[in-house]
Amino acid sequence: MKKILLSFLFLSQFAFAQFTDINIVKEIHTKDKGLVVSAHPLASEAGAKILKMGGNAYDAVIATQYALAVVYPQAGNIGGGGFLVGVKKNGEKFTIDFRETAPQKASRDMYLDKNGKANTDLSQNGRLAVGVPGSIAGFYATLKHAKLPMEKLIQPAIDLAEQGFALTQKEANLLNNQMDYFHQHNKSKTVFQKAIPWKQGDLLIQKELAETLRLIQKNGAKGFYEGKTAGLIVQEMKRGNGIITLNDLKTYKVVERKPITFNYKGTEIVSMPLPSSGGILLAQMLKMSAFENLEKYQQNSTNAVQIMVEAERRSFADRAEYMGDPAFIKDQTAMLISDEYLKNRWKSFSFDRATPSSEVGKIIPQPKESTETTHISIVDKEGNAVAVTTTLNGLYGSKVVVSGAGFFLNNEMDDFSVKPGVPNMFGAVGGEANSIQPGKRMLSSMTPTIVMKNSKPYIIVGTPGGTTIPTSVYQSIVNIIDFKLNPNMAVNSPKFHHQWLPESILFEKNFPESTISDLEKKNYKVERDSQIGRSELILINEDGNAVAVADGRGDDSVAVE
Fold first, then answer.
1. What pTM, to 2 d.p., does this model score?
2. What span, in angstroms and rounded, lies between the C-alpha atoms of 258 and 372?
3. Same structural domain for residues 270 and 192?
4. Which of 191, 317, 349, 423 lies most in the core, judged by the most C-beta atoms within 10 Å?
């Protein structure tokens, strides 16, 4: 009887909460307390509550991810996948790859028409665009590093789905802007569709999603990959041209991989290996920019940006040629991040001019990668750190909601080279290394990263943003280590991005015009964008004082234990 009562009391702490007060917190300084940074205040608070109940960073990250699946449906998910990088208080480093996989019925040319032309609408929208989801399997793989049972970690998300939460203005706008897609790709009406436009303060209640989460709470991972929910996913496939089967779901497996690690100016960088390109790109960019003593220049000055752009150009050319699922290609990571290779790669750099992209790689058009990803950074008071980036790929993924189960499915198949040489939705080009094969994981740019100093977590960082992810993480790190910026400035300073193809540098609004003008004189092509990424960063000083910063570009928020 006592056990039942305690369980009821635990659930009640969430069950009677109100989810209409959205308190966005952009920065917190603390010592000896856990910190959670995510894309939504209610998700960050769910993680912080778990820390207060005795959970560690891994408990908190599971709870935060489940909560994001409810309150951040455009990218938070149980219908997608992601990558986790962890460092435990004993120094153990690990990663969990819960990236989506291609269904067994997938084929190299599945998005080509009879003339061999790529139909990217099929790879980006609707049921054929869906890869086998990995998120739930990833949460369960994380559980062995946690302290609390899964049924407690999922409860905050169930309450948020059951009772509803108030939309922010940004969330209302996003739902309204996507309404036509929801109508187009769903046979039955979803909770995301309304006859009148959504507005700030409206409650989004998701009863079907709550029930789906309860099945997971009751039956574990089988509550998603088998039984009722799996059946509903397959039924959804049959409403269109989807190809995921019950066997695809039942046989999905996470992969635990050795992190990519390397030294940078007195720190050790711990990041994600293939099939994420992020860790390799980060190693290449940091090492190449170190050849020019980046720290002697001012942040966002002409010389600093040119060095970093040319490092980005060379790295992304290698991404197109060499990177993919290591189970299907020869993994060339060791060569690609070696000093000898990178010194040779850097020989063509000159401050006098822009290096033409044709000089640094075979011109292979790249697929575009969606910017609708989400990142969580967490540290607990014991010193465990975790960085996890998850995605549905595009905004609300494939736009398809599983009828009866209440969650969006990903459109991750577009991250393959749909046709080698054809850009994806983010303009990234891919070659044979990232072509479609059954069971294969699509190449990603997600870059969850932990920087170590004196064998302890120093910086925990990551961001959404498609192909801009590695370059944004790169900038956050050098902003602190090389340019000595405080964490808030490191996150919120205007960013830039280059990815080899297209040739142009993408500059965020408010970027120094004098730098842009100087670079144009050196033959650089320029484009502008309103926003690049939404970084979540925690910095822990050697004295144990910590500061967490949520990006000012969105509703991102920090919560403290």
1. 0.94
2. 26
3. no
4. 317
Both tokens of 556, joined, read 């991102």
What values do phi and psi take at 292, rounded to 5? -105, 15
Same domain as 366, residue 480: yes
The catalytically annotated residue of 371, 373, 463, 471 is 373
- Domain membership of residue 143 (yes or no) is yes
Does 362 share its domain with 228? no
Domain boundary among 411, 436, 462: 411
Q: Does any domain span residue 301? A: yes
Q: Within this chain, do residues 294 and 404 fall inside the same structural domain, yes or no?
A: no
Q: Say yes or no: 132 and 222 in one domain.
A: yes
**Residue 365: its pLDDT value, please?**
58
- pLDDT score recorded for residue 12: 35
| Backbone dihedral angles phi then psi of residue 200, each to the nearest 5 degrees | -55, 135
Residue 313, SS3?
helix
Residues 6+ apart with CB under 8 A from 401: 182, 186, 190, 192, 407, 408, 409
First to last CA, the chain: 30
What is the 3-state secondary structure of 477-510?
A: HHHHHCCCCCHHHHHHCCCEECCCCCCCEEEECC
Contact (CB, 8 A) for 47 and 559: yes
To the nearest 10 degrees (0 to 180), the angle between helices 468-481 and 278-290 is 40
Is 373 designated active site?
yes
Claim to verify: residue 234 and residue 294 sit in the same structural domain: no
How far apart are the C-alpha atoms of 351 and 303, rounded to whole Å?
7
Task: Clarify whether residues 299 and 190 are in a common domain.
Answer: no
Q: Is 431 helix (H, G, I), strand (E, B) or coil?
A: coil
Beta-carbon count within 10 A of 7 CB: 14
pLDDT at 176: 98
97, two tokens: 């790859």
pLDDT of 366: 57
Query: pLDDT means per 10 residues in the chain (561 residues)?
Result: 33 48 94 97 98 98 98 97 98 98 96 89 96 98 98 98 95 97 96 96 97 98 98 97 98 98 98 98 98 98 98 96 95 98 98 94 65 93 98 96 98 87 70 90 97 98 96 98 98 97 94 98 96 97 96 97 96
Q: Which residue in 398, 108, 78 sits closest to 249, CA to CA? A: 78
Total domains, the chain: 2
Question: Cβ distance 97 to 256 under 8 Å?
Answer: yes
Asked, for residue 376, whether it belongs to a domain, the answer is no
Query: Which structure tokens are listed for 209?
Result: 């999603």
Q: What is the pLDDT of residue 370?
A: 67
* Res 21: pLDDT: 80
- Contacts for 92 with CB less than 8 Å, ≥ 6 apart: none
Host domain of residue 146: 39-80+93-250+394-411
CATH number of the domain enclosing 470: 3.60.20.40
Max CA-CA distance within the chain? 77
- 58 and 73 housed in the same domain: yes
- Please give the pLDDT value at position 3: 33
Q: Residue 367's pLDDT is what? A: 57
Q: Is residue 486 a part of any domain in this protein?
A: yes
User: How far from 9 is each of 2, 4, 147, 152, 160, CA to CA, in Å?
Assistant: 11, 9, 19, 11, 17
